[in-house]
C-alpha cells in the first residue's frame, strides 16, 4: 500500500460545521469532508478494490466514492489531518485478509474422559432407584 499515491488521489472539501458554536460557526468552514474515488483509483488492484468495497460498504456511495467527515476540532487543518489518518487506518484495516481457521481434531483422551464421565453419572443415577426385591 503506497500511502503517498493514495493521499494524492484524495479530495478535500471544507464545509461549515453543524451544531452550536455561536457567531463563529456561521463564518468559518472548519468541517472537512474527505472523498476518495474507489472505482477509478490507480492505487489498488481489482482484488483490493473488491475487498475494500466489501468491508467498507457502509461508507461507500453507489457511485463508488468513499466519504469521511471530521468536525472534531475548530481548526480546518487539524480536521484535515485527523480525517486523513482515520482514512488511512480504515483502508489498512480493510485490506487485512483474516487467516483461514483450521478445525482441530478432538484428542482421543478427551473423548474417553467424556464417555467415562457419562458412565459414572449414569451409575450414580441408577443407584438412586429403589432396589428390586
From TrEMBL:
Gene Ontology BP term (one) = rescue of stalled ribosome
The EC number of this protein is 3.1.1.29
List residues of the Prokaryotic-type class I peptide chain release factors domain: 16-32
Q: Which UniProt keywords apply?
A: Hydrolase
Q: List, in alphabetical order, the Gene Ontology terms for molecular function in this entry.
A: peptidyl-tRNA hydrolase activity; ribosome binding; translation release factor activity
Mind telling me which InterPro entries this protein's record contains?
A: Pep_chain_release_fac_I, Pep_chain_release_fac_I_sf
User: Record's PROSITE patterns?
Assistant: RF_PROK_I (PS00745)
This protein's record includes keyword Metal-binding: no
Show the coiled coil region(s): none
Task: Name the protein family.
Answer: Belongs to the prokaryotic/mitochondrial release factor family.
Q: PANTHER family per the record?
A: PEPTIDYL-TRNA HYDROLASE ARFB
Name of the molecule in the record: Aminoacyl-tRNA hydrolase
Species, as recorded: Flavobacterium piscinae
Amino acid at each position: 500500500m503506497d500511502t503517498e499515491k493514495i493521499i494524492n488521489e484524495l479530495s478535500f472539501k471544507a464545509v461549515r460545521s453543524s451544531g452550536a458554536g455561536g457567531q463563529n460557526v456561521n463564518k468559518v468552514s472548519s468541517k472537512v469532508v474527505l472523498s476518495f474515488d474507489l472505482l477509478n483509483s490507480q492505487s489498488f488492484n481489482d482484488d483490493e478494490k473488491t475487498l475494500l468495497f466489501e468491508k467498507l460498504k457502509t461508507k461507500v456511495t453507489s457511485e463508488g466514492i468513499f466519504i469521511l467527515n471530521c468536525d472534531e476540532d475548530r481548526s480546518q487543518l487539524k480536521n484535515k489531518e485527523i480525517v486523513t489518518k482515520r482514512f488511512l487506518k480504515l483502508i489498512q484495516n480493510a485490506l487485512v485478509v483474516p487467516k483461514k481457521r483450521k478445525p482441530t481434531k478432538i484428542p482421543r483422551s478427551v473423548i474417553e474422559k467424556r464417555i467415562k464421565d457419562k458412565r459414572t453419572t449414569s451409575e450414580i443415577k441408577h443407584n438412586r432407584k429403589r432396589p428390586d426385591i
